[in-house]
Amino acid sequence: MISKAALEAFKNIETPFYYYDMELLSATLEECRSQAAKYGFKVHYAIKANDQQRIVDTVCNYGFGVDCVSGGEIELAVESGFDPAKIVFAGVAKTDAEIRLALKAGIGCFNCESIPEIERIDEIAGEMGLRANIAIRVNPDIDAHTHKYISTGLEENKFGISIRAFDTVVETLSAVKNINFCGLHVHVGSQITEMSVFALACKRTVDLMHRFERAGFPVKSINLGGGLGVDYQHPVANPMPQFDAWFATVHENLPLEPGQELHFEPGRSLVAQCGDLISRAVYVKQGIDRKFVILDAGMNDLIRPALYQAYHDVENLTSDGELQRYDVAGPVCESSDSWGEGLMVAEARRGDLFAIHSAGAYGQVMAMPYNRRPFAKAYYSDEVLK
After folding, report:
1. pLDDT tens digit sequence for 332-378
2. For residue range 25-67, what is the model confidence (pLDDT) as tens digits?
3. Using H for helix, E for strand and C for coil, what is the string for the chain?
């Protein structure tokens, strides 16, 4: 919830801007860390969710590792003080330069997503006189019941390797000379709120683990990725994701063998609810049958609604009027630049401040200067409220 003191400060800040509640971020990180510690689980922050330096530094202070998907993210993680041994490197198109960068940095593990990638990492590691730790990302063919753009665990997908390619994977692992096989990586998608999906992923992972072990490849490490969802419908009432249920579900459905490690890669669940996109109403206009509120924040600032048809709770912060129904839109010259149709918000007037909630993940990090609009700045509660 945005405090009265913060709201007063907002009146003097040019909109649109991102506002991060650092107290909520710290509370979320502490909850995740403490729940994972109950079972000895290891957590890596998916840095693609939000790469703002203040956010990254705060995550680092809690002792998490990092999940990276590019060389640039690896560089940011190392420069921010993360232990390279706690860095895992995913992504379907790791370039030669990125592989060399990761090997030179001494990262903990490559999450490999294709057989050609395994072979190329082996070649480059040999050229550098090093050995590379890898995990095989296997698609468990599970429907995560999320938007098709964020569902990644189906059998036929650009991410990961199909279970059907098991024999070829084993042949490849038997042939490479400069690779240490560490284990398995399984990630079924994002914004998952049904614990049954994670339970099924665990059972599929156990089956996979046994297949690799029978083939002579002991699985020392299991990485279940991320995917835990947040409450976009009621972010103020439910700011804390279900870390307890997530880790308990995995603990109950994936019994570890002696010496095995279990890793997770949350991103959205750590940072989504601490961030709000703050905007002003530029115009309120009456259409033929509908009322419109046009904000100065648009899809260039937060692309999720336009890209995924994603819902974000929209709140009029400065009105005490009765709830009315509006189509709330942004300023970008695209029909998809909409925050929602028929939203119930407090009576709107020109100049009212609006909050678009749950914007801490895949918000500012995906911003763009479309229509030559400037990037929204970031402000942090511990600075704004001094």
Report:
1. 999 999 999 999 999 999 999 999 999 999 999 999 999 999 999 99
2. 999 999 999 999 999 999 999 999 999 999 999 999 999 999 9
3. CCCHHHHHHHCCCCCCEEEECHHHHHHHHHHHHHHHHCCCCEEEEEHHHCCCHHHHHHHHHCCCEEEECCHHHHHHHHHCCCCHHHEEECCCCCCHHHHHHHHHHCCCEEEECCHHHHHHHHHHHHHHCCCEEEEEEEECCCCCCCCHHHECCCCCCCCCEEHHHHHHHHHHHHHCCCEEEEEEECCCECCECCHHHHHHHHHHHHHHHHHHHHCCCCCCEEECCCCECCCCCCCCCCCCCCHHHHHHHHHHHCCCCCCCEEEECCCHHHHHHHEEEEEEEEEEEECCCCEEEEECCCCCCCCHHHHHCCCCCEEECCCCCCEEEEEEECCCCCCCCEEEEEEEEECCCCCCEEEECCCCCCCHHHCCCHHHCCCCEEEEHHHHCC
> Domains of the chain (ranges plus CATH)?
4-16+273-384 (2.40.37.10), 23-270 (3.20.20.10)
Reported pTM: 0.94
